[in-house]
Amino acid sequence: MAIPKSGAQRKSIDWITFSLFLSLVLIGWLMIFAVEYKGGDGMAFSFSNAIGKQTIWVGLAFALLLLIINIDWKFWRNFAYPIYGISIALLVTVLIFGNEVNGAKSWFNFFGFSLQPSEIAKFATCLAVASYLSGPTSKLKTTKDILTVIALFVAPLVLTILQPDPGSALVFLSFFILLYREGLSPGPYIIGLSAASIFVLALLFDPMTVTIVLSVIGMTVLVQNIEFRSYWNLSMILLLIASIVCITQGLTTQILIINSALLIFFLFVQIIKGRIQVSAMVLGAFLIFSSLSFGTDYVFHNVLEPHHQDRINVWLHPDRCDPQGPLYNVLLSKMAIGSGGLSGKGYLEGTLTKLNYVPEQSTDFIFCTVGEEQGFVGSLTIIGLFVLLMMRMVILAERQRLNLFRQYIYGVVGILFSLCNQYRYDHGTLTDHRNTFAIY
Known about the structure:
By secondary structure, the protein is mostly helical. Among the domains are: 72-185, no CATH class; 189-303, no CATH class; 308-338, no CATH class. Helices cover 70% and strands 3% of the residues. A three-stranded antiparallel sheet has the order 1-2-3. Helix 1 runs antiparallel to helix 17, helix 5 runs antiparallel to helix 6 and helix 5 runs antiparallel to helix 18 (403-420). It is globular. The chain starts with 14 loop residues before the first helix and ends with a helix.
C-alpha cells in the first residue's frame, strides 16, 4: 500500500509480497486437500471437511482484502484501541464460554466453524502497539512509555496462558523485535536472552553443572583486567575442561566448591584493586543466574504437572519420553517427513498421509504432508518462501514514511518469525495469519 500524499489516498499492491503470500496460501490449500482427499468431487466446497472450510476462509479473506484496502488508513489509527479492547474482551469471554479442546479453552465454535480469539488478539495487539509508538509523545525513552507498550502485549499474553495455550502466548513476546527496531536499549534483550539460556540449560543439565560453568564465565570476566590476561584466559579454558572432566566422573560437588572458592578469590583481588563495580556485577549475575538454575529445576520437578513435564521433555529430553505416549506424534511425524526423501512421493501419493498414520494431519502436523509428498526440495521451498516474505516485508517497512505503517509491518514480521519457529506447523493457522496481515 502506498502512502497517502496531499490528502489523496493512492494505493498500489506490492506484487512481490502478494505473489509470495498467494503462493503460500495456495500451497497450504493444496496440502490440506491432499490430506482430506478420498476421491469424489465437491470436497473443496463442503462444510463437512477441513478443505471445504479452508476454501471458505480463504475466499472470505480475499473478499475482506478488497474491502479493507479501500478504507482510509486513519481509520486504523483511530480505532486501534477499540479493536484491541474487543480482542481482550474475546480472550476473557473464551475463558468462560469457550470450548475445551485438548485441555485448553481457546476456541469458540459456531455452526461447525472454529474461532480462536488469540489469533485475533495477535494482530489487534500489533495494531495497538504500532498506534501507541507512532504517537507524537511516544519515544521509548521514558520508563512510562516502555512499561505502557509492554503492558499492551503482556495483557493478552497472560490471558492466553490462562486458557492455557503457552504456544500461542509466546508469540506475543515477538513484539520485542519491534521495540528493538524502535530504539529500545539492548540491555533488557541481553538479560532476557541470558535468562532464557540459563532456563534451557537448567532443563538440559543438572543445575550444579550450570552453576559450575557460570563460575568459570564469571572468573573469565574478572581476569580481563589482570596482567598477563592471555595466560589467565588460557587458564580459564583449562579450568573449564577440568570442570567438565570432573563432572563426567561424578565429582560435581567437589569441583563446584573449588570453583566457588576461586571465584571468591578473584572477586577479592578485584575489590582490592578498586574495581568494585565490575565485582558487584559479576557477583550479582552469578547469584541471580545460579538461583534461576536451581529454581527452574525445582519448578520443573515439583510444580509442573506430569503432562507439562512431558511437553518439555519431548523437546529437550526425548529419551525420557514413552515412544507410545508423548513422543508418539513426534516419531511418526519424523518418519513421514523422512519417507519423502529428496523429491517426495508425488502429490496425492503420500501413503502415510492417506492412512492417517500421523495424527492431526491437516492442522498441527500438516508439514508432514509436505515432507512426504514433496520431499526435501518441497520443504526447503516453503521455508524459503517464508524467509523471502519476511525479508520483503522488512524492506517495505523501511520504505514507509509513516511510523504507523513501519511499526505495524515489523510487528507482523515478528509474529510470523515466531510462528515459523514453533515446532507445530499448524498450516491452517498460518494461512489465517497471512490472510489477516495481507489486508492491512
